[in-house]
Design goal:
Blueprint (H helix, E strand, L loop, with lengths): L8 E5 L5 E5 H4 L3 H8 L6 H4 L1 E3 L5 H17 L16 H11 L2
Parallel strand pairs: 1-3
Antiparallel strand pairs: 1-2
Length: 103
Amino acid sequence: MSDDSETKTIKLISSEGHQFIVDRKCALVSGTIRSMLEGGGTFIEGDSGQINFGDIATPILEKVIQYFYYKVKYTNSTSQIPEFPIEPEIALELLMAANFLDT
């Protein structure tokens, strides 16, 4: 039987309770999420495949997830990489979330 850990999805939940289903390989862009999922049984999130972010608002978590997919898509790309768009009004919150998530 093949190891399908790279094709699994995980559920990320914002402070408002919005649920995002994310490809595991994309979520692992985050060092924090990687530690939670691959921490050797230390975190319950590794077993449940679900992570609650009580301090990250829905629009910020959504933008972070967009970045996860962007990072996976353009890592090792030989073509020109487009700029990742960040709206100025969310920049500070996004920076704090990215710092927490080790992204």
